[in-house]
Amino acid sequence: YAFLIGGRASISELQEFEAIEDNILGAQAVAEARMSNNSRFARLAADIPNAGAYITSFRLPASHRKSWVQAQLQAASLLNDGRIGVMALGNFGNIYEQMGNFEKSLSCHQLALKLATKGGDSESQRVSRANIGMILARLHRFEEALPFLEQSVEEARTLNKDRMVANALCNLSAALNDHGQYMLSLSKSKQALKIARALKDRRLEGNALANKAAANVGLGKLRRARACQNARLAIAKELGDRRGTMMAHGMLAQVDLLQHRWTDAARNLCIQIAEAQLFADAAAECDALCNFGLAHAKSGHLDLAIKSLFRAFRKARSRNDQKVLG
What we know:
Number of strands: 0
Distance between the termini: 42 Å
Low-confidence stretches: none
Number of helices: 17
Radius of gyration: 20 Å
Order of helices and strands: HHHHHHHHHHHHHHHHH
Mean pLDDT: 88
Shape: globular
């Protein structure tokens, strides 16, 4: 977890990753090509997607990681290793979630839970339940999501694992924001933030700050929201977390729109759209295009507003995203 501390540790880890990135990509390609005839290569193909997972999720597009996980799933079959199969399904679920395909993400996590339960893997069951709760919340199925998310918090506390508790609290806080329970979300995000700072885990700190910012937006406390989101943006940049940077600019744009700062909103949305396209995050891109249309309309550029909204409409229709289409 040295990378997550931030500062020089993160810079050093990022520099090391960038120095050997071509070697990692090459090793994965060789392992994938040869794993059918050699169990050692199959084991390598199975292990690579989880090695340095935080850095790769920050730096590599979903298309790269998706091909790795496809090889991981094949390797699990070759090795007859159910645990790796469950891990691969969970990885697929996380990638589909980042790409904005929540239905596929949910199916992957549900299948992972089924297989983990069949294999008696309690840790994978816990992780799968937490992921299912998070995705159900993203699908606005809050009543179904809440029991999973609350159970995740209680399980983490029972195991007395602070990092796990903070992660679970962040997931619950995000769901509460989506459901409009801003005061309760604010309480959970503050709990997560306290733990994250005690652990010196900057990634977790950024996630907690993002939820705290969203809760403050819901409560109409826009200055506090902006301060939280600026702090979150600084952490994302410190960690080289391009997805976190994208999401921070998106939230800052929302605050800009609420404060009628149309030019600032457009600038933040341009960054969000560019990063969303890099990571193939269709949900984030659609949201940004809708907000971009609003910013253009409010600043009197109706032609640009219509173009942005049409782009959002086409992408949402291709994904059957009823929220954006509405």
